[in-house]
Amino acid sequence: MRKTAYPYVIWLGIFIVIPLLLILYFAFTTGDSQNLSAFKFSLDNFKRFFTPIYLKVLGRSVNLALISTILCLILGYPAAYIIAKEKVRKRNVMILMFVIPMWMNFLLRTYAWLTLLGRNGLINTIITKIGFQPLDLIYNDKAVLLGMVYNFLPFMVLPIYSVLVKIDKNLIEAAEDLGANKTTVFSKVIFPLSIPGIMTGITMVFIPAVSTFIISSLLGGNKYNLIGNLIEQQFRWTGDWHFGSSMSIILMIFILITMALTSKFDKDKEGGGGGLW
Amino acid sequence: MVNKGIKRLYTFLIFLFLYAPIIVLIVFSFNNSKSRGVWAGFTLKWYIELFQDANILKALYYTILIAVLSAIISTIIGTFAAIGISNMPGISKKIVLNLNYLPVLNPDIVTAVSLMVLFRFLKLDFGFTTMLLSHITFCVPYVILSVLPKLKQMNKHLAEAAMDLGATPFYALRKVVIPEIRPGIITGALIAFTLSVDDFVISFFNTGKGVSNLSIEIFSMTRRGINPVINALSTLMFVGLMIMLLIIYKRTEKNEIEKGEVR
């Protein structure tokens, strides 16, 4: 029954492989977007990117994505741990509560933060009522970070949780029988066993965080740029697909590096696919 | 005891963080004022306006139509692909699975712009077709990834046994393989549907000609100010989903009890 995969293999070729090859082709050429045959090979797009203005944007994107990944881990690990220790019925409900918000349109949920954080928003209203000066909570780095943590926290909690609940209880009991106290059990047994979940969580948070352009344009204000915003501008407005493609390639390289780093720790990945990544 | 209190407080704060914006949305869908942050009394007028707003209703229509179509098509393609892949020899299986991972791991925006370049290159008109094609493309890999584990769990010789007993391959597929992997197929279809409903980035780059979904509509609204009508719509969708969830929960609970009695 091998043949049943052939239609999808053709689909893969047309809609996944060829588009990426086109991006690669655009990245290494210059010319008028309308006339494919007139393209010339060139490294100009990459040269243009490796100038201080654009490198700064890349640096800020990577930096924000890293901080938000770390924050998600710090906030998410204890949450996953607490939930995993609950009784089956209760923990199923609690995990479901992490998934439910994702069913509401994420643009709308992110936008709702404006109501909370804005100059006349709820938080500032409360602060001024108590008698303090209103704070600048919106259109800055912190607001973008908050948006990232808010949107991607479930992606950190879910994989860590699913690893934690699978840990063999006998291992923990054995460690306790052998005289380990709670801290030792955690640091020598539970934590090492949960590393695969952490690694999945890190990739699942870092990838969307480093490439987002919506969170930054909603909560960061119009002038706020991340690499995602630059790519969006090139394809939607400026029309320089060559430059946009080269930035997409650079973004992909960053993702590949992340995957390589995290998969080193994640040795018992379930067999089958994904070996390359 | 103190420890338990800290745990309770911590989970409460995390859930408060997750649900605060949603509560705000729901509360402000009953607010008698267009401006955010000011409470001007209770009203249902946004709910009434919702059913008169042609743009939003059209976007809702396209969102659901595309989600249903792409869920059905990608589930069919994905299920057959998964069955085929699981029977492939080692090396080609590895290649196909790795290519299948590309849209899952690639940032949305890269998948989106690469499809946009392809469609421009093929000289397709941007609109319904391009949006549907792009949605199917990013949904199929998830269907495959949820069906494959079920195929792995299944006894390999079942289909062979059926065919030895005279079943045609198609009959064996229909009567033996598909029922065995049904949970995986259903999960895959649900994932595909949710991904499609919630998608913004890929739709944003691959639509045109007055075809838009709710996400695109909301994004353009954030530029000129959100119409509270959209809050009303999301409240309705949220409540709808919760009701659906409750029904499923009650039904599985009932099933479990019935099964327990049989045993």
Features:
heterodimer; A: 277 residues; mainly alpha; MetI-like fold; two-stranded antiparallel ribbon; 12 helices; 73% helix; B: 263 residues; 11 helices
Give the topology, please.
The complex is a heterodimer of chains A (277) and B (263).
Chain A: H1 6-27, E1 29-30, E2 40-41, H2 44-49, H3 52-85, H4 88-99, H5 106-117, H6 122-130, H7 141-166, H8 169-177, H9 182-211, H10 214-219, H11 227-238, H12 241-265
Antiparallel strand pairs in A: 1-2
Chain B: H1 2-28, H2 45-50, H3 54-86, H4 90-105, H5 108-121, H6 128-153, H7 157-164, H8 169-198, H9 201-205, H10 214-224, H11 228-262
Helix pairs in contact in B: 3-6, 3-8, 4-6, 6-8, 7-8
In short:
The complex is a heterodimer of chains A (277) and B (263). With 277 residues, chain A is an all-alpha fold. Chain A has helices spanning 6-27, 44-49, 52-85, 88-99, 106-117, 122-130, 141-166, 169-177, 182-211, 214-219, 227-238, 241-265; strands at 29-30, 40-41.
Please characterize this protein's 3D structure:
Chain A has one domain (57-265): MetI-like fold (Orthogonal Bundle), CATH 1.10.3720.10. In chain A, 73% of the residues lie in helices and 1% in strands. Chain A has twelve helices and two strands, in the order H-E-E-H-H-H-H-H-H-H-H-H-H-H. Chain A has helices at residues 6-27, 44-49, 52-85, 88-99, 106-117, 122-130, 141-166, 169-177, 182-211, 214-219, 227-238, 241-265, and strands at 29-30, 40-41. Chain A has a two-stranded antiparallel sheet with strand order 1-2. Chain A starts with 5 loop residues before the first helix and ends in a 12-residue tail after the last helix. Chain B has two domains: 1-43; 53-235, MetI-like (MetI-like fold, Orthogonal Bundle). Helix content of chain B is 80%, strand content 0%. Classes of the chains: A mainly alpha (277), B mainly alpha (263). At the A-B interface, helix 1, helix 3, helix 4, helix 5 and helix 7 of A face helix 1, helix 3, helix 4, helix 5 and helix 6 of B.
